[in-house]
Amino acid sequence: MSPKTLLPQDEVNFISSLARPEAEARLKALWEAGWSLSILGESLEPKRPKTTIHFWVKKAEAIKQFREIPTPPPRSLTTATPTKKAPRLRSVSPNVPPDMKPRLKELAKLAKRYRARTTSDSPFSQANRDLTAMAVALRSMGVPTAKIAAAAGVSYRAMARRLSK
For the segment 31-63, what is each residue's pLDDT rounded down to a tens digit? Predict the structure, then answer.
């Protein structure tokens, strides 16, 4: 586990040396620069809860800062709040290759007629095994179960059960 990110020690010492209104204004400037409330609270001596820092930041007056604000740590894409200029990024999952879709539909149609008593050399049994193998291969490539099910023309639940075997 990585060590918890805190404010630089010289910044903590600087905030501690300020009077309460100036310290609150400095915390507001740090928060506006991108430092999280929890990091600010954890960095102070004594440690303060995030709610206290939030209260101070909201009531603080904006005072011009003459000392440079330290650069905040990078934020994870999943926790960053989206803005108009930088919307939240989503990962794009792969689709079923278009050339595999007809084969999936054909196998699914045949595999629907497979039963436990079906002989292992019957076309329905072979289609059932092939469909399962194709689905497992697609899933290992990162294709979502819902997309595999849609391409095969079966329900999500049926495909999820097939993949869970």
Answer: 998 888 989 999 998 899 999 999 999 999 988
